[in-house]
């Protein structure tokens, strides 16, 4: 997986075709797992660039729809976009293609729960205080 480009609310990643990622040796079609990982990473990173910083987040929902098999020997490109950012959630979508964005291999939609650092810290302090009281 490699970084390709990004903008204020999107990230583009690439995945070169490799034989060890093939799901069907007869056809040379990539397995679904690497494409899922690529879309998950691209959409997750799109949420981060939309916020302007890295913050912990949790995947609430990620749906991947496969539209066709990827072409043998071609790299996959995934572009993730954060189209709506709220205080606690980022709404994302993405496409994966093998050279032509108008003919995608897969489409993704998802929601990430944004976890603010002070919420993590407060929870950790509360557990530490309760442990000391025992």
From TrEMBL:
Domain Thioesterase as annotated: residue spans: 28-102
Range of residues in the leader sequence: none
InterPro entries: HotDog_dom_sf, Thioestr_dom
Transmembrane segments: none
Superkingdom of source: Bacteria
Descriptive protein name: PaaI family thioesterase
Organism field: Novosphingobium cyanobacteriorum
């Amino acid at each position: 997986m490699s970084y390709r480009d990004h903008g204020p609310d999107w990230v583009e990643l690439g995945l070169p075709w490799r034989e060890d990622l093939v799901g069907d040796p007869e056809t040379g079609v990539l397995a679904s797992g690497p494409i899922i990982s690529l879309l998950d990473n691209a959409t997750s990173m799109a949420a981060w660039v939309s916020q302007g910083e890295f913050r912990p987040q949790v995947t609430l929902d990620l749906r991947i729809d496969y539209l066709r098999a990827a072409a043998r020997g071609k790299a996959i490109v995934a572009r993730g976009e954060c189209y709506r950012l709220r205080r606690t959630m980022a709404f994302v979508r993405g496409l994966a293609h093998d050279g032509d964005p108008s003919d995608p291999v897969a489409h993704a939609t998802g929601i990430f729960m944004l976890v603010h650092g002070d919420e993590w810290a407060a929870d950790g302090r509360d557990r530490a205080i309760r442990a000391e009281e025992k």
